[in-house]
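Field notebook, page 455. I keep forgetting to write these up properly, so this time I am using the form the group agreed on. The chain and the ligand, zinc ion, are recorded exactly as supplied. Prediction of the bound pose follows.
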Amino acid sequence: MADRMLLRGGYIMTMDAELGDLRQGDVLVEGDTIGEVGASVDAGDAEVIDATGRIVMPGFVDTHRHTWETAIRGSAPNATLDDYFVEILDTFAPQYRAEDVYASNLAGALECINAGITTLVDWSHINNTPDHPDAAIQGLKDAGIRAQYAYGSANTSLADYWFESKLAIPRDDVERIRNTYFSSDDGLLTMALATRGPGFCVEEVVREEWTMARDLGIPITLHIAMGRVAGRFGMVNMLNELGLLGPDTTYIHCCYNSDEEWKLLADSGGTVSIAPLVEMQMGHGRPPTGKSLEHGLRPSLSIDVVTTVPGDMFSQIRAAFGSEREGVCGVAWKEDVNIPETTVTARDMLQFATLNGAHVAGVEDRTGSLVPGKKADIILVDTTGPGVAPLIDPAAMVALSADVSNIETVIINGEVRKRDFKLVGDWDRARGLVENARDHLISQVPRQERWTAVG
Ligand SMILES: [Zn+2]
């Protein structure tokens, strides 16, 4: 059989409840699929990748990122959510050309791969013209990442598209994209609808968009219960009143859900994406990892915006871990009791960042754990360099010590996309394009006060 590859002699963290960890083992990749996972796999003449001193695990899953913002990375370092609406969505977004979206998605997806993120939910509310979604999808395709492309609204003016908006996402174009690129749901790229939801648009639009997604058989993803404004909308309650809650929907942030809303969300089979750094830095509220678990949900992690936070999963894992434990320990301090043993662990964080992410992105049947039959989305994390050696507990090492510089190999759908610590894809081309996009975008907007060192 062609294209056989053996990852030999690594510490294998399958993230599967039954298979667990193998202290030393092999993973056989056959074509795009995981063929075998075992202590010793005889693979004949397969290409061998030496995994000695490496942790072999599933790639991370980022369940929500506005990848189009790659070109304006770091432009809003101190922004709150309110500032972000003005500075990013109302200032930069209307200036985006299709080529800027392509450059951002290509560079942003390569950035993910470099950081060990093998699946990305691209929350793409930048469809200023019908060329924009095609450009976004082409960028993801050219990078070779597994992604759920979430088709969102245009961003030509904040007044038109947010807060009591009467403009629905154009159904004919969503249908065109569905038919052109996503005739099957089995590909490396799948599709979702990135909606605004009640409070951000009028009821008819909410109904129209939910109906559209369900008619086309694509899942729904929306931001809820974040920040000063949307935290008070009660969006889950509103969706419940409209009869629109369902298992096909991902709820991002959820910082100010009421207990009643948590219950409604969980009972409906909905899923949760938490963006810990953005939530803490920008005023969305406390990252609700513990709250999700309390309600039997399987929280996932997401990066959200690289205008304000880093684009890697390690930063999110640590932010969520610190925040969750600070919350629990703070309550214990107040009540003068011992810290409960149920507090989340470093390994839980890896579960959130891999298998739970696959669940939330609707691809748990094909990725998120190293199980024979699933697609080969695998990373090798070096444990021999400074900052990671010596190794005692592999889960702790990945969750708490490693960073992007320790991601040695990245395999997506059986293809090696990073090897010997270097991206296989053409980063120089991507960087050129995304720097050109940055130059264009910055030239189109008034100088922002926050850019202390730009231009
Ligand atoms: Zn977001």
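OBSERVATIONS:
- Residues 52 and 454 are 44 Å apart (CA to CA).
- The chain has a mean pLDDT of 95.
FOLLOW-UP: compare against the apo run.
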